[in-house]
Amino acid sequence: MIDFRSDTVTRPTPTMLDAMMQAKVGDDVFGEDPSINQLESMAAGMFGMQAALFCPSGTMTNQIAIKVHTQPGDEVICDKMSHIYQYEGGGIAFNSGCSVRLIEGDRGRITAEQVLASINPDDIHKPVSTLVSLENTANRGGGSCYDFEEIKRIKHICSENNLKLHLDGARLFNALVAKNETPQQYGETFDTISICLSKGLGTPVGSILLGPTAFINKARRVRKVFGGGMRQAGFLAAAGIFALNNHVARLAEDHLHAQQIAAVLQQKDFIGEILPVETNIIIFEVKGRLAAAAFVAKMKEQNMLMFAVSPTQVRMVLHLDITASMVQQTVDAINLL
Ligand SMILES: *Cc1c(COP(=O)(O)O)cnc(C)c1O
Question: Between the chain's N and C termini, which has fewer beta carbons within 10 Å?
């Protein structure tokens, strides 16, 4: 099977598994796991941030960040398609007791003007706007990337209005590679950042939350309350260290593969709009003689797995378990349809 359903389906490479087997471990709830401590300081160093916290999932890092940044009754500002709102089980309400102000963004990206217009006035009728959360790359935007100048304008609005700025950077490394940006730029601009190691970077489990030391100390307490304190999880942290050292630059290959597949799709009469392919995700419309579900079924007959994300749209995600020859096989299969 060639699995395009998500970049979460990757399995550790033999060399990553070796690194995991060699890990030195201890009890991380006691702060004694050397591999986790190493991963946390390595990630914080990369982004020029004070501290980091290793967590089981990106949902947990986002939800902890929202919990620490807000009080019940506050309001979180984000794009209407954001993962924190659409795909975290109502966690903003459940965990933090906050309401959400949804913005109609452009492929998952919102502007400084929209943020400014969404901040509530100081009025007892209104929830208190305390947090803005951005997603880069934006998953439902088809892996779209922010213009860093726009992020700086949003940061300026947040600072002027005393709001915190969080980044859901589940696929931030895809954006960094695609736009030739640095982790430091992001570390300087955001109050807190969540990055996933289990997406394009190819580890089996894990996400990292980055922020100031006082924030991460509170986050560590919330992680325990959420049931996310792990013990000898250094085996997982070792996979993360390996991924940060070895799997970042190669994301460019996934982006190239996505371009190659999109170029073939573009020529087919049953393919409608393809969202601009900026990173490793392709979202495209299937129409005319094939419906989205029929296209997915035909591809499955050729051992290629993907999702219909709506009745008319299909999503394909490239990742490190999809080789150049698998991309060629896929291109050939599409050409025969
Ligand atoms: C995958 C993802 C997350 C985190 O998901 P987990 O499965 O909980 O690790 C967060 N944000 C975005 C945009 C994602 O794609």
Answer: N
